[in-house]
């Protein structure tokens, strides 16, 4: 296991902070920051948590820092099936069912599908169930949703850009592997490097081919506001909304 000093230095550099920047934010001397990073000083549990908070680290990584310094993890990682998570499960189910007939999914940090509502059936129709286990893989795989996405290049660029930002925040190697996999999928459309809006554009829609005509969706991401558990902190709900009246009518009829 990597010792705490190199981990602290790695995260500080990941956040593009100097030792002086971190010392000011954490109210610790620059000299002590240097000693912690080189192993000349051993941080207390409280010191690690203070620095981790200043670096805005995910709860999983805060636990990893504690373990590397010889301390027990502070933040639990509770299965959703645990009775203690009943309130979380109820909140998720309320959001999912309340959003019908429009699609909504619950994913973990690595975009694995945790739960979904009935509206997802329209998006997932005809996709291999093995692909639907991961939402990003199902969206961009050539045997997934990708062939039905009218603006495949634009939507793909949007998803990959969002994933790159998440990797920068979490430094999760599994997300990096997923990114490299997704980037290797074929795409026969231009992929804009920058999301530059056209006249009247206010978001990047997902434009989907359908028997009833093109459907257009935009999405909203929601997370739990005050998580103290790794599982809860890594859950996200993506809710898709109709971007025009035609899509709204088709989704309403589909639900019937």
Automatic annotation (TrEMBL):
It comes from the Bacteria. GO terms for molecular function: DNA binding. PROSITE patterns: HTH_CROC1. InterPro entries: Cro/C1-type_HTH, Lambda_DNA-bd_dom_sf, MLTR_LBD. Pfam families: HTH_31, MLTR_LBD. Residues 8-62 form the HTH cro/C1-type domain. SMART domains: HTH_XRE (SM00530). PANTHER family: BLL4672 PROTEIN-RELATED, BLL5781 PROTEIN. This is Helix-turn-helix transcriptional regulator. It comes from Herbidospora galbida.
């Amino acid at each position: 296991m990597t010792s705490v000093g190199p981990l602290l230095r790695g995260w500080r550099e990941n956040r593009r902070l100097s030792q002086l920047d971190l010392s000011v934010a954490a109210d610790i001397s620059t000299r002590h920051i240097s000693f912690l990073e080189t192993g000349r000083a051993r941080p207390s549990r409280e010191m690690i948590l203070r620095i981790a908070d200043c670096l805005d680290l995910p709860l999983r990584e805060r636990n990893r820092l504690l373990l590397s310094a010889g301390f027990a993890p502070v933040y639990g990682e509770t299965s959703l099936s645990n009775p203690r998570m009943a309130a979380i499960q109820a909140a998720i189910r309320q959001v999912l069912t309340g959003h019908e007939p429009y699609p909504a999914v619950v994913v973990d940090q690595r975009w694995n599908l945790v739960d979904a509502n009935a509206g997802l059936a329209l998006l997932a129709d005809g996709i291999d169930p093995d692909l639907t286990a991961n939402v990003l893989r199902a969206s961009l795989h050539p045997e997934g949703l990708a062939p039905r996405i009218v603006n495949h290049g634009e939507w793909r660029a949007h998803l990959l850009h969002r994933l790159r930002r998440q990797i920068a925040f979490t430094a999760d190697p599994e997300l990096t592997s997923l990114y490299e996999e997704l980037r290797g999928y074929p795409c026969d459309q231009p992929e804009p490097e920058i999301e530059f809006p056209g006249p009247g554009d206010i978001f990047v829609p997902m434009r989907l081919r359908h028997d009833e005509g093109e459907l257009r969706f935009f999405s909203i991401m929601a997370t739990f506001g005050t998580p103290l558990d790794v599982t809860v902190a890594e859950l996200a709900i993506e809710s898709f909304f109709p971007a025009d009246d035609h899509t709204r009518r088709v989704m309403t009829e589909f639900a019937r």
